[in-house]
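User:
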Amino acid sequence: MNNQLGRLHQLGSRLSDTSTTAGLDRMVVNTMWNTSWTPLEYRGCQKEYAAYFNNIYKELCKAACSGDAQIPSYTHEKLLQIVNILKDEDITRDEIALLLPTVPGSGCLHQERALNLAAGLLVPLNFRGIGGARPGKLIVWNSNETLKQLVAAEIQLWSGSSGAITTSTPCTTCISSTSFSTRFSAWHLKYLAGFEIIWTNELSDHLRMSVDEADISVHIFHQVKILELHQDLLNEIIPPDMIAETFATLSLLFPGANRKARIWYRNLQRTYNLDPGTFNRPYIKPEDYDIQLFKHWGPRLAKIKRAFDDHEPNGPAQWWRDDRRPVQWWTFWTAVLVLVLTVTFGLIQSVASILQVLKT
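Assistant: Predicted structure:
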């Protein structure tokens, strides 16, 4: 009875109270993932859901309570009812609008925002109409589209099969000739080539590379738990092959074999509140990857790989770590060692000569 009262209190709280409602994250997880965690059980797996709840659920609820047509009076229970409708029904936006729960004092604009918010909570894309100042491209869910159709259209745009992005898509020959080695990972991108890693909650930004003068940034999507939720849905909103490919790219970028990299992963997770599933994907040897199997992420992977291969070390630290070309690496550091020894012996001889002159 007490558990039921607690559930009603938590889910019955308003969106404007999201940050102050104790135990809300567990109730949201239980409702969205169809789990039944008790408070004690949830403590053991809370880290798995923390990235989603803090970076997506709380942030989007906060955005929906700002600006015009804000919906602070909506409760989490009403909002999650809409999410469950989206999970179960493969119908158009207009048809879903007829199924929305009623909220006293809310009009059409409030319902529109609530529907956009629910879509953003379920599908990790940047939906227009949620509210708040959110960077990046906003996508519009048209009234005659199903959510599945919208996602399919967006995937077609960023996967390189649309003429809208042909200027940034590598050629077919470049993609087919791309191969990976054990020296291609996020750790190598960061510490060998100096690329900046930007963590994103937007699936459409995954593996997007941006160049600002001499600086190169690579965006990496880390919300693994929400993709795992989609794997269990009968209504396949995000295509299974897209999810599998995304997980494969994380396996490639975050192999668990490198001890230094594992320490880096732990530090990243603590610093940026990342989904721990990002770093716990099944290991696949890079040489077993075939770039042509990446139907969706292949062009972006090939672009990153080309920039990585073209990068020349900048500074002693990068020179020391850059063992992509072993012969050149040994030649360079042998030359450095010879130079250091020559200078050292020269200094020793000079000092010895000076001391000898002083003694005489």
